Amino acid sequence: MPKPRTSFILLLCHMFILRLAFTISGIRKDVGLKDKRICKTTVQGRYLLSDDWGHVCDALSVDPVSRCCSGKGAQFDCHGCNLDSQCCNSYEFCVSCCQDPAHTHKELALSVKIAKPSTAGTYSSVFDFCAGRCRHNSESVVHENAYLSDFHHCFSIPSNSSGTPGDHVETRLAGINVIVGRQGESCDSVCKLNGQSCVPNKLLALNQCEIVIIFLLLISIYNILVTYSIQKYMRCKGACLASIGADQPAEVVDDAPRHLNPGACLYTRTPSMLACDGLHRHTKRLCPCA
Q: Of 61, 96, 159, 260, which has the highest C-beta tally within 10 A?
């Protein structure tokens, strides 16, 4: 029969072994566990939402814990999007398509200002950029109260952000007829003659040498000046010059006085002066009509 002291020691050893076993078991249970990722999602849609993985789903398909879409649909889905203009007819698919690295470069997206003031911050993620950019913006409306087309959710990098001055101008002018007026005409008159109205917030997109330089085509039968696309250029044989005036962007006519630089194209470095009713008797204006 073991002595009481020996029995007590054996009991302590058994308790130590059991405690060690429970501790090891507990450690093993924790190995490999990771916190489940919580997705960011769009919230303004009535029927659909897009998550920051680039998936689109309806509310019933969202994981109740992670808030992510189930992932059954295509990632970076561009359904209903025009990839040339980078505009879509659905907000959620715009956000999904925009997150594709092939369409949006992260470095550029994170350098874009959230608002116009110089004190405005930048986006913290590509998802935040896409969710903000795909909302209705001033570049997708005409006369401030009507959409240019059904494809009014656009995700292209705005031209006043990082990049060359002419980037994405085609997107900004989607739905706009760019018309070269006759000598001495205002854009209000030019657009009215074509059954349209001048769109003042598009003058800034045209106020660049890269865009001002477009071809004039004269249809001799009707004696009407038209332009076919912003990729064609004005002659600008007298160069492209910075100027001051409400009639810009414009081209100086060939028979203008010598000091006005006949044949030159003009743009202004004071955008606040741009106006649809501006005119000059020695220039032909470049006008955005819709």
A: 96
- pLDDT tens per residue, range 43-82: 867 789 999 999 999 988 899 899 999 877 789 999 988 8
The pTM of the full predicted model, rounded to 2 decimals, is 0.47
Number of alpha carbons in the 13 Å side-chain half-sphere of residue 89 = 5
- pLDDT digit string, tens, across residues 235-277: 677 578 888 888 988 889 989 999 988 988 888 878 888 899 9
The string of pLDDT tens digits covering residues 187-198 is 999 999 989 999
CA 10 to chain centre: 75
Alpha carbon 218 to chain centroid distance?
Answer: 35
Residue 161 CB-density burial (10 A; 0-12 exposed, 13-18 middle, 19+ buried)? middle
Dihedral (Cα; 272, 164, 190, 259), 10-degree rounding = 70
Supply 260's token pair.
């006005």
Residues 239, 264: contact at Cβ < 8 Å?
yes
Cβ contact 16:44 at 8 Å: no
Distances from the Cα of 70 to the Cα of 34, 64, 202, 274, angstroms: 19, 10, 41, 50
According to DSSP, residue 86 is labeled T
Tokens of 125: 């993620």
